[in-house]
Write a structure and sequence with these properties.
By secondary structure, this protein is mainly α. The chain has a single domain, classed as Up-down Bundle (Growth Hormone, Chain: A), CATH 1.20.1250.20. The chain contains 17 helices and 2 strands. The protein has a two-stranded antiparallel sheet with strand order 1-2. Strand 1 and strand 2 form a beta hairpin. Helix 1 runs antiparallel to helix 5 and helix 12 runs antiparallel to helix 16. The longest helix has 33 residues. The protein starts with a helix and ends with a helix.
Length: 439
């Protein structure tokens, strides 16, 4: 036992280094995810696309992300992140270079591949973040990891946007991103340790698939996926896709200020993910923070759509909405804790599949709905209210579903009195959701 602990402690710096490098990849694919939003005029002119056509192009990222999340989770549990994550960097690089072509079909394929490669980054970085992590630190590490992704999204708006406005050709940007992705391939392979996996070595392929299927059939997995997807919709679809246009068209906010107000949600996200994760680990509970975050997010959406503009402090609603939506990341901890440890990557892949699958499914729906309610003409506040009011109901549904989650947090074990010595003893019944109890 002592030797095993020594080996795990010795592996921590190696895994930590791999985690940092994979976080760079994770942040990089978020930059690519957000970059098209700040080059809409250039893409509209080059591709001769309508706003609805551009929205359909952008959402291809989510199709690729969702479709490959399940596959990546499965193969990463089977072969380990070192043999899988670098492949994702190659796919992202190919997607960036194809997007640079400026031809509609190639651009669409490139956008899909960017999302597909992004799934490799997400599953890999969450795998490495929780390798050798104790139960009472898992949500903290997952929340901290998510900050890197949000930082990439932030850079996609505030670094790429000014660069394009300053004269950087949009095609040159995508070419540079392609070469950066290629450079990441050997770096990821070298930094990720070969032993960073937990799959039983003698497990047959049939046994592996059977047990992986149990993850998909687990009601807790399904609940986590639905809750994560519903709570992320206001940020992934409304803020990141329509947010700037909403502020310009419905609230008459100048473009520069609209960009800052939309980015306030990302800043709140960067705060909410690690803070709520740390609080969840400290308290030992997941459900109260998921439910509370959903309730606050519901209120923020109502204020965004219906409150009188200029009454509330600038950026306050966006910041609170971002913090509240960070609670969705806690479902990543819950799904890992509700399934066997050796299926952790499959579980993460499943929640990512559900999360981005909902975004991919509903993204075009909101685009069509907006076009319908506005009759294809100029859009005003009433059109946005009608089109995006269903997002509030989605968040409300997530809160209701969270009530049915099984608590998996590392809550302190209840104390029992030692009637002979008169001293409290820890109960020998592990907390619900703990790995000891599941085993």
């Amino acid at each position: 036992m002592a030797r095993k602990e020594e080996q795990e402690n010795a592996a921590l710096p190696v895994v930590g280094q791999a985690w940092v490098v994979t976080c760079v990849f994770f942040s990089f694919q978020y930059v690519l995810r957000e970059a098209p939003d700040v080059m809409v005029p250039q893409l509209t002119s080059e591709l001769h696309a309508s706003p609805l056509g551009l929205s359909s192009l952008f959402v291809l990222y989510f199709y690729g992300y969702a479709a490959f999340s399940l596959i990546v989770g499965l193969i990463m549990d089977r072969f380990g992140p070192r043999n899988v994550v670098p492949v994702g960097a190659a796919i992202v690089a190919a997607g960036a270079l194809l997007f640079e072509s400026g031809e509609q079909t190639m651009t669409s394929v490139g956008r899909f591949l960017q999302g597909a490669g992004g799934a490799f980054a997400a599953v890999g970085v969450y795998c490495l973040a929780t390798t050798n992590a104790s139960h009472d630190r898992r949500a903290t590490l997952i929340g901290a990891t998510h900050v890197f992704g949000v930082a990439g999204a932030f850079a996609g708006q505030f670094v790429v946007g000014p660069a394009i406005a300053g004269g950087l050709a949009w095609k040159h940007f995508w070419a540079l991103m392609g070469f950066f992705g290629i450079a990441l391939i050997p770096l990821l392979f070298i930094s990720i340790p070969a032993q960073a996996r937990v799959r039983p070595p003698r497990e047959t392929g049939k046994e592996f698939l059977t047990k992986a299927g149990a993850v998909f059939a687990n009601p807790q997995s399904i609940l986590c996926g639905l809750i994560a997807g519903l709570l992320f919709l206001p940020t992934t679809l409304f803020d990141m896709v329509w947010g700037i246009r909403f502020l310009e068209e419905a609230r008459n906010v100048p473009y520069e200020e609209a960009v800052l107000r939309s980015a306030a949600v990302l800043i709140g996200w960067m705060v909410g993910c690690p803070v709520l994760g740390a609080l969840s680990d400290m308290v030992g509970r997941r459900k109260p923070f998921i439910i509370g975050g959903g309730a606050f997010l519901f209120g923020c959406l109502a204020l965004v759509l219906y409150h009188k503009y200029g009454v509330l402090p600038v950026y306050s609603v966006g910041l609170v909405a971002g913090v509240a939506s960070g609670a969705a990341v806690l479902t990543y901890s819950v799904i890992k804790e509700a399934n066997p440890p050796e299926r952790g990557n499959t579980a993460i892949g499943f929640v990512l599949f559900m999360n981005y699958g909902l975004a991919a499914l509903l993204g075009p729906v909101f685009g069509v709905l907006m076009t319908k309610v506005s009759n294809g003409g100029p859009r005003g506040l009433i059109h946005y209210q009608i089109a995006f009011a269903p997002l509030m109901y989605c968040v409300g549904l997530a809160v209701v579903l969270a009530l049915f989650l099984r608590e998996t947090g590392p809550a302190p074990r209840p104390l029992k009195m030692n009637h002979f010595a008169g001293t409290p003893l820890k109960s020998d019944q592990p907390a619900e959701g703990s790995e000891e109890r599941r085993s």
